[in-house]
Design a protein that fits this description.
This protein is an alpha/beta fold and 288 residues long. It folds into two domains: 7-202; 224-285, no CATH class. It is 42% helix and 15% strand. The chain has helices at residues 15-22, 25-36, 86-103, 166-176, 189-202, 205-222, 231-243, 250-258, 262-272, 278-285, and strands at 43-45, 51-54, 59-68, 73-79, 114-120, 131-134, 149-155. Strands 1, 2, 3, 4, 5, 6 and 7 form a seven-stranded mixed sheet that branches. It starts with 14 loop residues before the first helix and ends with a helix. The relative contact order is 0.12. Residues 52-60 and 224-229 have low confidence and may be disordered.
C-alpha cells in the first residue's frame, strides 16, 4: 500500500470510499435492488459492523451489513484483488450472519433469507459473466434448496450485456474505471448519486481524519509480529475521535490509555468511529 495515499485519490472500489458511500441507506438500497433483482422498500445498515476486525486472522475487512423490511440480511464486500476460495469465504460470512441471528434467540424456522454479495474487479469464474448467482441445489433432483442462502458475485469483466440489466452493466463499468474515467457522465441516476457522495466525502475534514486513522490501522496489520509499542498510538487515536464528539472525562481517558490489550483497543477505535456521542461510546464500550 502507498503510505502517502490521500482521500482525494480514492476511487469507489477502494475499500474506505466504498464503505463511506454505501452507508448511505438510499444508495445501499438502490444497489441491493440492482444486485438481487427485486424491489426493496427500505434498508437498515448496521454501522458498527461495517468495519470488522478478525483478531484470529489479523485482518480487517470493510463490509456493508444491512437488512431490509422483510428481515432479509445482506453482506456486501468489494473485492479488488483476486483471492482464492471466495466460495468458502462466502460460506463463512453466511455462517456469521446465521449465528448472530440465533444468538438473539431466533428459532431455525425464523432465520431470514441472507445474501452475501461480492463486487469483484476481476472475473471470479472466468466465464465472462457480469453476475454469478450461487444457491444450494439438490444433486439428484436439481431443485434449489430453500435454505434462504444466496451468494452473488458481480464482475467488472463481464461481456454478456444482453443477459443483465443495463444499469448493472453501467455500474460495473463505473467500478472498473480509473480515477479520471470515474468522474465522467454515465447517464445513470444511481451512478450520479455515488459520484455526488464521493465529492462530499473527499471534501470532508472528518472523513480525511478517519481515512488517515484507518490507513494507520491497516499498516499496523501488515507489520510482522505484534508491535507492543503501538498500543499507545491506538489509545490516542480513540481519544482523538472521541474529542470531536464532546468532553472526555479523566476517568474515561485513563481507562482508554490504560488498556494494553491491542484487540480491545482496535474495537474501541472502530466503536469511536461510528458512535454519535461520548455517552454512547461509554455505554457500548462496557459490552466489548
Amino acid at each position: 500500500m502507498n503510505q502517502n495515499r490521500k482521500l482525494a485519490q480514492l476511487m469507489f472500489k477502494d475499500n474506505f470510499m466504498f464503505g463511506a458511500v454505501m452507508v448511505n441507506e438510499e444508495i445501499c438500497r438502490d444497489f441491493l435492488e440492482m444486485a438481487v433483482g427485486f424491489p426493496i422498500e427500505k434498508v437498515e445498515i448496521s454501522r458498527e459492523k461495517s468495519m470488522i476486525y478478525h483478531p484470529e486472522y489479523r485482518g480487517i475487512r470493510l463490509d456493508i451489513i444491512a437488512k431490509d423490511e422483510n428481515r432479509t440480511h445482506y453482506n456486501v464486500e468489494m473485492q479488488v484483488a483476486k483471492k482464492s476460495f471466495l466460495e468458502k469465504r462466502a460460506r463463512y460470512y453466511h455462517s456469521q450472519m446465521d449465528m448472530e441471528l440465533l444468538l438473539t434467540g431466533e428459532d431455525y424456522e425464523r432465520l431470514p433469507a441472507a445474501y452475501v454479495i461480492f463486487i469483484c474487479d476481476f472475473d471470479p469464474f472466468g466465464l465472462k459473466k457480469y453476475r454469478y448467482t450461487l444457491q444450494n441445489v439438490c444433486a439428484e433432483t436439481k431443485r434449489t434448496v430453500s435454505d434462504g442462502r444466496v451468494t452473488i458475485f458481480l464482475s467488472t469483466c463481464g461481456e454478456n450485456e444482453k443477459e443483465v440489466p443495463e444499469n448493472l452493466v453501467k455500474f460495473l463499468k463505473f467500478v472498473k474505471a480509473d480515477l479520471p474515467e470515474s468522474t465522467q457522465d454515465y447517464r445513470d441516476d444511481f451512478i450520479k448519486k455515488i459520484q455526488e457522495s464521493m465529492i462530499k466525502i473527499k471534501s470532508s475534514r472528518e472523513m480525511e481524519e478517519k481515512f488517515m486513522l484507518l490507513e494507520e490501522l491497516l499498516r499496523d496489520e501488515r507489520a510482522e509480529g505484534k508491535a507492543e509499542g503501538k498500543t499507545e498510538g491506538k489509545s490516542e487515536s480513540v481519544l482523538f475521535l472521541l474529542q470531536d464528539l464532546g468532553s472526555v472525562s479523566d476517568e474515561l481517558r485513563d481507562k482508554i490509555l490504560g488498556e494494553r490489550n491491542r484487540d480491545v483497543l482496535l474495537k474501541y477505535l472502530k466503536l469511536a468511529a461510528h458512535v454519535g456521542s461520548v455517552a454512547e461510546f461509554m455505554d457500548k464500550m462496557d459490552k466489548i
